[in-house]
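Bench log. Compound arrived from synthesis this morning; before running ITC I wanted a structural hypothesis for how flavin mononucleotide sits in the protein. Inputs:
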Amino acid sequence: MTLYDGGHSEYNSGKLDIEDLKVDPFEMLQDWLDAAKAAKVTEPTAMTLATATLEATPSARVVLLRGLDTGLVFYTNYQSRKGTELTENPKAAACLWWAALERQVRVEGEVVPVSAEESDAYFASRPKDSRAASAASPQSQIIPNRESIEKLMQEYLELDTIARPEHWGGYRLIPSYFEFWQGRKARLHDRFCYVRAGDEWLIHRLAP
Ligand SMILES: Cc1cc2nc3c(=O)[nH]c(=O)nc-3n(C[C@H](O)[C@H](O)[C@H](O)COP(=O)(O)O)c2cc1C
């Protein structure tokens, strides 16, 4: 076995106490996203998204958080592996990790597609090459070579307008659970979870 001894980095940059928490976990997440942006971390909105098949086989990948309102909005191909899994089992978990801030956020909940109008508006806001790439890529399918999708992308780039493919759009992860983690000295980290109870959020401190 190869041992990965990355040393024992200490987490010393912050702490999290009950009085630091917002009543509303969405505001808390917004504050931490703002702090990650202010700290100029790479891809502050990158989140690992876990989905699972109906047989409970999990899969995970990184997507970008594109909006935060009643849920966490991300965009993808509805026929991708994640899209297929979300159609059969609309439950997901997301995890954001900002190394420079020694912070992690976990979110769990139900996923619903955003409206076609919302997906249209977001698709239209993307650069032309991103729109062409989304239209050309049968995401998660086996393809014979790179050239085949490059050729298709080029054909889209030659069009005056690129319509949003019906199989490409957004999802909103509606949280029923949040957890905020702040690294602390000697691995005695601070963790708080928010559990939805009707219209309220119950807050608990968790052991590290
Ligand atoms: C930093 C980063 C950001 C990404 N953002 C997205 C995204 O917003 N939407 C997306 O569909 N894939 C995104 N990807 C690619 C996914 O990780 C993944 O390869 C793709 O969605 C196919 O996943 P699936 O086969 O599990 O459906 C991103 C990858 C990285 C590393």
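What the model suggests: The chain has one domain: 18-125+166-206. The beta strands are 46-52, 58-64, 67-68, 72-77, 91-98, 103-113, 168-182, 190-197, 200-206.
ITC booked for Thursday regardless.
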